[in-house]
UniProtKB/TrEMBL annotation:
Coiled coil: none annotated. Pfam families: RRM_1. Keywords: RNA-binding. This is RRM domain-containing protein.
């Protein structure tokens, strides 16, 4: 129910909406289907003069109708609102103030006159004026001017937390058809209306990313049921259940679907998802059962990216089925979260037999057998490997990784056992372009320099929290790169991006202006490490 306030005038009360609009029009709910407008007209006439009563039937709902009643006097409308219960023919009728934008005081507002100077401005000048105004002032001007350029192509839902319902409604009426992207968390006081406005006015929406906003089955249907142009949908931590998923079936243009952190999903109805999906993220959906994975992949023939948490179930040969069943031949990227003790039981080595595999991201240490199979089957195809486990890889595992010749991106953060000997083996990766070594505490300046010079395409190095590195490494890299350029032997993209973290490098950059002057050779960013 909309917020209303009451004020006293000459012994009578007048109701106002949250936008300070005088209430004369009331919204009627749960009107019995057989009740007639004449009955309502007679009842409400006891409170004052009624200008109009209208009832509307809801499609597919034959039990109740809804509608509105319009009073001539706002004082009479306030008397109706102040009465706690309305029994008409022994049936309880619910009512509340109609929306601000539907009240007579708003509908009768005079627009800015045609001869006004602002009406003579061209679209470009008008656009510049609008951009100087706050959202509320933009909407106020648009209401009076009846003319507004397309100011918004994207919006964060947090914007609507502090504006009125009227402003929110008019925003979607004015700009909804132009919105390509909506992101953010639905404000708690705007749930029902935001879902309604997005569904009604944003039919051209391409990207919808909603987080931390619980959605019922009904609200999920209302939200996405009419957004047939959606190409990317994220509903993260929205308390979705399996019965929410059929609401996505009609999204035939959907390419990317992110359902992470919905821990009540089991995977039971995921074969009902649109077959157009190319990317599916189910990370941290802890109740998704691995036994459904082959069926899900079979229903998504275009699937190229998959994020999944593998759980221990009776069905532990799921990855063997994926590889041998050819149900995901286009799958190129897998992000996998498993329990370390379950890796062997899941036969993760069969991931290496997926025909399209190019990118593998793991949150637990890869098994030795998986790495052996990757070397055997994907050494010339796998271009991206990440191991985000806190457990370091041993020398045997690192030796196998060094044999993945096609790698372009390698991420091995927090591997405390990576030393100069291991770094020397990585020098064999001649296609390497980017490496992440955050928190690898044993690597030295010499090892990093040797890796950079050996891998002629390497141009991005994440070296945050590598304790043995010094500022002199930066000088040595600059000197070597300049020499390669002088000899016309440089093959890598310049400048080389170097990422460091810590007071030692802050002080170094402050004291050595010559490093900042070498921006054509190195681009240094002092940043917080993403792997804490």
């Amino acid at each position: 129910m909309s917020y209303i306030s009451y004020r006293h005038f000459n012994g009578r009360t007048i109701a106002f909406t949250e936008d300070n609009v005088e209430v004369k029009k009331l919204f009627l709910q749960r009107v019995p289907f057989k009740m007639r407008t004449e009955t309502l007209q007679t009842y409400f006439s006891y409170f004052g003069k009624v200008l109009h009563v209208e009832l509307i039937e809801k499609p597919r709902k034959k039990k109740f109708k809804f509608g509105y009643v319009l009073f001539e006097s706002s004082r009479d409308a306030a008397d109706v609102l102040l009465k706690e219960m309305h029994l008409i023919n022994d049936r309880l009728i619910k009512l509340e103030p109609y929306h601000s934008w539907g009240q007579p005081a708003v509908e009768n507002v005079e627009p800015i006159q045609e001869g006004s100077p602002i009406r003579k401005l061209n679209d470009d000048c008008l656009y510049r004026i609008y951009r100087y105004l706050s959202l509320t002032d933009q909407l106020n001007l648009a209401r009076a001017l009846k003319r507004c350029p397309p100011l918004y192509s994207s919006i964060n839902l947090g914007t609507f937390k502090s504006i009125s319902l009227w402003d929110m409604h008019d925003f979607f009426v004015l700009f909804g058809y132009k919105l390509n992207q909506i992101v953010g968390q639905i404000p708690r006081n705007r749930y029902r209306r935001l879902i309604e406005f997005v569904s009604t006015h944003c039919h051209n929406l391409r990207v919808l990313r909603i987080t931390n906003s619980p959605l019922t089955v009904s609200n999920t249907y209302k939200l996405v049921g009419h957004l047939h142009q959606l190409q990317e949908l994220k509903l993260s931590n929205c308390d979705l259940i399996d019965d929410c998923l059929p609401s996505l079936t009609g999204l035939h243009k959907l390419k990317k679907l992110d359902l992470c952190y919905n821990d009540m999903l089991t995977g039971l109805l995921m074969d009902k998802l649109p077959s157009s999906i190319e990317s599916l993220n189910l990370l941290y959906c802890i109740d998704v059962e691995s036994m459904f994975l082959p069926r899900i992949c079979s229903a998504l023939p275009q699937l190229k990216e998959l994020g999944i948490r593998a759980l221990l179930t009776e069905h532990t040969n799921v990855f063997q089925e994926l590889a041998n069943g050819h149900c995901c031949d286009k799958l190129e990227t897998i992000t996998l979260q498993t329990e370390a003790s379950f890796d062997l039981q899941f036969h993760l080595e069969y991931l290496a037999k997926l025909p399209g595999l190019k990118k593998l991201i793991m949150y637990e240490r890869p098994t030795l057998m998986l790495l052996q199979w990757l070397v055997a089957h994907k050494s010339e195809q796998l271009i991206h490997l990440e191991n985000n486990s806190r457990i370091s890889l041993d020398a045997q595992q690192m030796a196998l990784i060094a044999q993945l010749n096609a790698l372009r991106i390698l991420a091995l953060p927090n591997n405390i056992d990576i030393d100069d000997d291991v770094m020397a083996k990585l020098c064999n990766l001649q296609h390497l372009e980017e490496i992440h070594l955050q928190g690898c505490k044993k690597i030295t300046d010499q090892a990093v320099l040797r890796l950079l010079l050996s891998c002629s395409k390497l141009h991005v190095l994440h070296l945050e929290r590598c304790r043995l590195l010094s500022g002199q490494l930066i000088h040595r890299i600059i000197d070597e790169l300049r020499e390669l350029c002088r000899l016309q032997l440089n093959c890598r993209q310049l400048p080389v991006k170097l990422y460091f973290f810590g007071a030692k490098f802050n002080d170094f950059m402050l004291k050595h202006s010559d490093v900042r002057a070498a921006s054509d050779m190195v681009d240094i960013e002092l940043t917080r490490c993403p792997y804490w």
